[in-house]
Design a protein that fits this description.
By secondary structure, the chain is an alpha+beta fold. The protein has 3 helices and 4 strands; from the N terminus they run ααββββα.
Length: 171
Amino acid sequence: KWPLGLKSVGRIESAKLHVVDLAPTLLQAAGVDIKTVKMQGESCLELIQGRAWTRSQPMFFQYQDHRAIRDNSWTLAEVDGSGWELYDVQKDPFECRNLADENPDVVSKMNALWTTWWREESGEKSYEPVSTVNSFDYHPLGDRGSGTMYVPAAMPEELKDRYPVVAKTEN
């Protein structure tokens, strides 16, 4: 409860947020000058207070063998070190249609942004995927043939054949 801070309650917001935005938002709400603190994420306090807010930087991700960047309506993602895939999440929110081959300029631009972020955050000169398959917490995602196949519960019927639970055989 924050009666002095929450100006517009009961609404659905479509802003693109990530869990890393919580810390800077809460710190700013507590009166901390977040410009003096280096951390991931962006404060969205203006949004919570009912004012206009837009993200100023893309969202970057890297976990185990997976990496991604999300900027406006584009998501560029790599799963299990299998190469970049590009999705227009405005038109394809379930990320079913890889548009990388049709938009090499977008892939190149977003790859450059991700690589710059990676260098700054990791201190490494280049990104080389390192397999974490032997790590105790590694779970292959499966969509690229590397693990148990996953079929989302909300998968539209006309797309379910893209993610078969069992291999199809010809009779």
